Amino acid sequence: MGEDFYSNSEYAKEMYNNASDLLGFDLQEISFNGPDDILKQTQYTQPAIFVHSVIVDKFLKDKDIKPDAVAGHSLGEFSALVSANVISFEDALKIIKVRSTEMANAGKNSPGTMAAILGADDQQIKIICKQDGIVVPANINAPGQIVISGELKAVENAINTAKEIGVRRALALTVSGAFHSSLMSPARQPLLEIMNSITFNDANIPIFQNVSASPFTDATKIKNNIINQLENPVLWCDTILNLKKEGITDFYEVGPGNVLKGLNKRIFPESNTFTCNKLENLKACEVL
């Protein structure tokens, strides 16, 4: 991810080089060449996605495409913080370095996993999560599209329960931990310590945050929401619906994929989500 930006932009090269120096490993090498089994480990995935997202955000602003509000899905909140001038690129990366490392450690020390549940209603989700052991909704992504998170055996049993009650689809995800669940609690104190060492500014535009799907500009509240996000679900569906209430209909997906485009269309069919994962897609924004 991001190689086309790196090859065509001095700004992108500078960002990748700065990130590699701060992280202590060659981010561009892993981002561009993998291997996939390394890139998929959360301590590498998180900074790779973040740097890509910040670069795209800068490209859009240089084209005078500036947001009226920002939101990010899980890790994406950190690029949203940078976009809204709450923290600097470097400070965000310092937090992500700790966050990703400690989440990886939590995943090793308290093994867990996640699963996608498709086609279940709210009552069925409650039944699915009622297991011996920890299972909780982790990503409320779109109508009928929920990700659950928890202990290995409990999630396995939850998948079986989903199939038994006739849910359309339930499948295990390839992840390195039970993210957005209480199994991530060991990462909380290290995350809090690094965040307390960094100055958070009030946002210059509203940030719709994962834990409540509500807009915030106050630095203290934003900081607390980021910490709480670690063990609580991402309320993406409500986030898009609340942005809709504010009259926002166009979204720009700055990460390396296009998952949010699909989710947004399910949540808010009349909306437009422009995927900016490649330089060629970004150039298309010039004629919008």
Automatic annotation (TrEMBL):
The keyword DNA damage does not apply. One of its GO terms (biological process) is fatty acid biosynthetic process. Residues 1-276 form the Malonyl-CoA:ACP transacylase (MAT) domain. It comes from marine metagenome. GO terms for cellular component: cytosol. GO terms for molecular function: [acyl-carrier-protein] S-malonyltransferase activity. It catalyses: holo-[ACP] + malonyl-CoA = malonyl-[ACP] + CoA. It is an enzyme of class 2 (transferase). Keywords: Acyltransferase, Transferase. Belongs to the FabD family. It holds the Pfam family Acyl_transf_1. Its EC number is 2.3.1.39. This is [acyl-carrier-protein] S-malonyltransferase. The keyword Cytoplasm does not apply.
